[in-house]
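From the shared-data thread, chain only:
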Amino acid sequence: MSSAASSPPQQSFTHVVKGYWNDFRREARYSFESVIAELPSGAADAPLVRRLWYFARAMFYRLTPARRAVLLIALAFLVSCFFISGEAPDSGTAPRAVFAALCLLMLLGLELADRVALKRDLELARRIQSWLLPQTPPQIPGLEIAFASRPANTVAGDYYDVLSPPAGLPATLFVLADVAGKGIPAGLLTACFRSCLNTLAESIQDPGLLAERLRKFCFADSNGGRHFTTAFLARYDPGARNLSYVSAGHNPALLRRASGELTQLPATGVPFGAFRDATYEMANISIEPGDLLLVYSDGIIEASNEAGDEFTFDRLCAFTGRPLGSADNYQKQLFRFLDDFTGKAPQHDDMTCLIVQFSATQPA
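Structure, as tokens:
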């Protein structure tokens, strides 16, 4: 009896430790990659000593000028203890060693304090971002909707939404967008994209015209095309059983027919923000009772396992072809399938999916 009662706490503790370890690996990787991005071109192919020098220099220049001075003073005192005297530290050099250690501890304390403040701000940003995304699928007659998102970092660069039509119109707008990059910069651009989209969608229902207006806003915020956004915009008219869509450089959405046939919905234009004068075509496809639409971000097909193998688009197609019933079941099974494939490998990009199951009966 006692052993059975003690098993759940042990499993829970293991789960918590594994979660902390995964968080540590993710944050360490994000910090390392952010430093590596600042290194000069060709640094990755330089000799080991030179790479370490590049890395140390990048870390040094991340400090404030005052903290750089403290670090240099501490290093100078350490050098004087160990090298200038030419012998091991003794009672005469001990005060200098203690002073150097205190300087380093003070520097570490200041950096940790900044880290705690940054962590608090990131957590607040994550909460705000969660407020901007729908938490539960809307109840729309004739449609069953499911969505899910897993950020690679605290703040994500993926955006999804289901926008109800203006009063008197039956059409529904489905949106999934992926801002290039990760973390806070991508999260800020995601918030800008959401604001523009929601403002425009109040008066524009046509996906082609909506894409044309979004193109102007996104290019203005793209820093000359450096920060682009892929997006899939689809408008469903239940009366005509028609899905009109624009895919701005996004991964091909998948439409699983009730018969089991799989249809790809390819891109109809380049990503938003990539080019000032880009044009977008609107495509139309008829929807049959029982069809299922899957829209996803590239973090799903690019998810890799411990061996470095990617999930790939082919695996996603094979999964989507399965008759799994409801949209909610598809969503849960998809992420379970991804977990089985990736195993303990760290997540490198945001993973988001939007699934729509079209009812076999015509809504009233």
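The chain has two domains: 2-128, 137-358.
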